[in-house]
Structure formats: C-alpha cells, structure tokens
Specification:
Helix content: 40-55%
Strand content: 5-15%
Distance between the termini: 25 Å
Number of strands: 2
Largest sheet: 2 strands, antiparallel
Radius of gyration: 16 Å
Order of helices and strands: HHEHHEHH
Structural class: mainly alpha
Length: about 120
C-alpha cells in the first residue's frame, strides 16, 4: 500500500463511522487497464496518483433527486467518466468561437462560476 491509499482508507473509515451513506456511495475502483482506456483520448497524461485514486474507488454514485454525497465538505468525488465529461464540456465552451473568454470579463466570471458549481473533487 502507498501513503495515498493509506490516507484514502483513513478517510473511508471516518466516512463509514460518521457518514455511512456517503461511504456507501463510493463506487468500486477500476482496473488500471480500464483507466487507461477511458483516458486514452485526452491530450495530456495524468499522474500515477490519479490512477491510484481511481483504482481505489471510482468516485461517488450520484443519483438524481438524492442529496449529493460529499467526499470532503462541499466536494463530491466524481467518477472518472463524469470527470472526463466535465472536462469535455468545459473545453467545448472554451473552444466555442462565439464566446470570447479573454475579452469578456462577465463571460470569464460566468465560466469560473460554472466550474465552481460543479463541486467536483476531480476537475481536470
């Protein structure tokens, strides 16, 4: 076990004792090969710690209509699939030729609010 996995297990233990519904919303981890497959189309490489994190657990299950489980106060641990979707949505907005993020202060602030509203633990 690594220090990261040990620390994550300590957090999991605390959640199991104090927030059992949050602990039970954690999804099983992914195999290394599954993570590689999901990340293959990204234009950058992620550090080994991200692989270790998603091998430990694949984020939290979030069901519509339910209170969102929090991994840390105010932050949800997104599944790898959801984190990639969030990234692709933000890149799509950034690349939109109709939007001028560099020259439009209000639009730039709106994008910052969108990122903040995702409350994601992992936002690329």
């Amino acid at each position: 076990m690594s220090l990261l996995t040990d620390a994550l297990d300590i957090i999991l233990n605390w959640l199991q004792q104090n927030k059992p519904s949050y602990a039970s919303s954690l999804q099983p981890g992914l195999a290394y090969e599954e993570i590689q497959e999901k990340l293959k189309n990204l234009a950058f490489r992620l550090p080994k710690e991200v692989y270790e994190l998603y091998q430990w657990r694949n984020g939290m299950r979030i069901c519509k209509g339910e209170k969102i489980a929090q991994f840390f106060h105010g932050y949800t641990f997104l599944s790898l699939e959801d984190a990639i979707d969030e990234y692709n949505q933000l890149i799509g907005l950034w690349d939109d030729p109709e939007l001028d993020y560099e020259g439009d202060k209000d639009l730039n602030e709106e994008l910052a609010e969108m990122v903040d509203m995702t409350n994601g633990f992992i936002i690329p």
